[in-house]
Amino acid sequence: MKITKNNNPWEHYIIDDFFPTNLYNDLCDYYISNKNEDKPLSYLDVQSDDIIKLDSIVQNDLYPFLIKEGLYKDEDFKPWSSRWFFSSYEPQGRYSKHLDTESKLSSLVIYMDPNLSNFPPEQGTILYKDEHGDEGQKQIKWKPNSGVFFRRKDNITWHSYANLSSSDYRITLNHNIYK
User: Fold this and answer.
1) How large is the C-alpha radius of gyration of the chain?
2) Neighbours of 22 (CB within 10 A)
3) Digit-coded pLDDT (tens) for 139-150
């Protein structure tokens, strides 16, 4: 796992090679065998046995790094709840600029490509300087088994995403922490 801190347009972390290859492949297979693409945006919660593996990567690799960076203190994670889920978004769909809900402390979005569709880099998440206009926006490039992490901040962490593919669903694996 390689983690790179960025401050443009606001503090976030790009994560490459998030999962070991065998676990990434297992997660892609899990999604394929459980997917529901009958709705434009659908969610598939990851079941309990798999959550243990995923949580251990977050707790042993990602969070210690974020604590060391000063983004979190160990007590920020207590008490908290988390949710791992796949999100699929229809071809040519767009999710408009938004802030996450107040109950969400942080978002981790891992880009998945279970159909080996080789999405263009523009499929990633778009970060905005503010609510108005597109000036100062930053595109997080789509790369399978990589993604972005950020801590929600009121009126700062504006973001959106789109699926530019004409035929394939945009699949992400998300981990959100709630207080």
Assistant:
1) 16
2) 8
3) 898 889 999 999
Can you tell me which residue has the tokens 């789109």? 162
Tokens of 168: 């394939």
H or E element, residue 132: none
Contact 71, 11 (CB under 8 A): yes
**What whole-number distance in Å separates Cα of residue 23 and Cα of residue 28?**
9
Q: What 3-state DSSP class applies to 117?
A: coil
**Which fold is adopted by the domain 2-178?**
Jelly Rolls (2.60.120)
Query: pLDDT tens-digit profile of 60-78?
Result: 877 788 788 777 766 666 6
pTM for this model (two decimals): 0.85
